[in-house]
Amino acid sequence: MSRELVNEICAAQPGSEWSDPWGGGHDCWKIGGKTFAVTGTQGTHVSVKTDGEEIANFLIETGIGMRAPYLHRSWVALPLDSAPDELAHRIRQSYRIVRSGLPKKIQAGLPPVV
Fold first, then answer.
1. Local confidence band at 41 (pLDDT 50, 70, 90 cut-offs)
2. What residue numbers bound the domain in which 68 lies?
3. Which of 37, 48, 92, 94 could pair with 29 as two cysteines, CB 3.0-4.6 Å apart?
4. Strand order of the sheet with strand 27-31?
5. What is the dihedral of CA 56, 32, 27, 94, to 10 degrees?
6. Distance CA 81, CA 101 (A)
7. pLDDT, position 68
8. How many other CB atoms sit within 10 Å of the CB of residue 72?
9. Which keywords does this chain's UniProt record carry (predicted)?
10. Domain CATH number, residue 52
11. Is the pTM for the entire model greater than 0.90?
């Protein structure tokens, strides 16, 4: 899977916004101002949020992902050449987790999830 395909999946999430907050070529995808996926300047991995540290540790222990640098332990970095369905699932799941954690007022102003 390529960086472009990751960006397509992220852009398809309702209300998602792209930014490069640190400069230098990061792809940072947000919903309601909160990050749900980020690809660094190297472009080898996409970091996504999981349901918690246990899930993140499971993904790391099974070799699906690795510890996401600079982020909380509930985040994992998945190689861009991961199985496309696994990568798409993890990006969508990260989006849902982050979106559900937003204040209800912000959630109410977002496009509906299909």
1. confident
2. 3-100
3. 37
4. 17-19, 27-31, 34-39, 45-49, 75-79, 66-67
5. 20
6. 29
7. 95
8. 11
9. DNA-binding
10. 3.90.1150.30
11. yes
